[in-house]
Amino acid sequence: MQEDLFGDAIPQPPASKPAALSRRKITKVSLAASALELSELAAQLPETLRFGVSTWSYPGWQGLVWDGEYEPSTLSKHGLEAYHQHPLMRTVCIDRTFWRPLTVTQYGAYAAQVDKDFRFVVKCPSLITDAQVRDEQGKVRKSNPDFLNPRLAVEQFVQPAVEGLGASLGVLVFQLSPLSWAWLHRPADLFHKLGHMLAAAREALPQGSSVVLAVEVRDPELLSQNLVDTLKANGATFCLGLHGKMPPIEEQLPILRALWPGPLVCRWNLNREFGAYGYADAQKKHTPFNAIVSEDLPTRTVLARTIGGITGAGQAAYVTISNDAEGCAPLSIQRLAQLITAQKK
Question: Which residue segments constitute the domains of the chain, with CATH numbers given?
Fold first, then answer.
């Protein structure tokens, strides 16, 4: 039964301005008219399924999401209000929180731009989920004394997100950056710390909250019973991380089966053809992100079956996709939606 279930055939608000500047017209972003043509497709998808992208400030989505040509800075400030009106986009992943914690006010500014049905997926700051302190180029400087610190996780991440986003908060993702061999050879210590942090995060959520806690890993060695036991014990789930550093989707599904029943959280980050550290190559090949350039039909097919099985059992599914997956996140979502509806027939 579980095999069938998982589809196997086996911005901060602007400060007040002087009167002379306040009269200046601020450019607003509108949804592309062609996006509304996808309303019928969206209506055929499971109610518990939420598709979204990883960030939204891409001018190349003109005609797909945006009604015209806009600067990235304009889209960053005003694009979310248009984006959330797209029939297929019911969530978005805020990746910027990985690099620096956001304030309650900043989260609140995001929440003010969407309707009550929209939900946010938010990444925990790396100052908590990276075992190393790195420089701006990503090189390791020293060990991180605050790695998986429960107090910091609550103060710098959970509480601001809960207070700022309110009912619009859907998922809190704790992405563990690639670990050193020293940590990988001490799994008991690692999962002990992870469990304590997840317990603190769970306790900090409002009583009866439907917010999902999800853990994403970047080391295949962590796909283990220890991970399953830690997640189960703390009411968390596994984030299906589709990335060049991780095994294909089929090899990650056993973790979800072991956690069943539960929601699906999936982040399709990087096409495996670019390898473990191929973001720069993917960006170079995919720019301006307006077409499917690196199609990955095998991953898309298995993911569609997985989504269908999980949502068919009444569970929630949050699926966010990056341009680095196939070249254009909105088109990847559209094709994935079409595949899901076709499999239902």
Answer: 27-74+238-345 (no CATH), 90-235 (3.20.20.410)
DSSP state of 331: H
Using DSSP, state whether 55 is helix, strand or coil. Answer: coil
Hey, what long-range contacts does 11-17 have (CB within 8 A, 24 or more apart)? 11/76, 11/77, 11/80, 11/106, 11/109, 11/110, 12/103, 12/105, 12/106, 12/109, 13/105, 13/108, 13/109, 14/77
DSSP class of 66: B
Q: Calculate mean pLDDT across residues 183-207.
A: 97
Q: Tell me the pLDDT tens digit for each residue of 208-263.
A: 999 999 999 999 999 999 999 999 999 999 999 999 999 999 999 999 999 999 99
CA distances, 207 to each of 69, 202, 248 (Å): 44, 9, 36
CA dihedral 70, 71, 77, 82 (to 10 degrees): 20
Q: Which of 67, 58, 69 is nearest to 36 (CA)?
A: 67
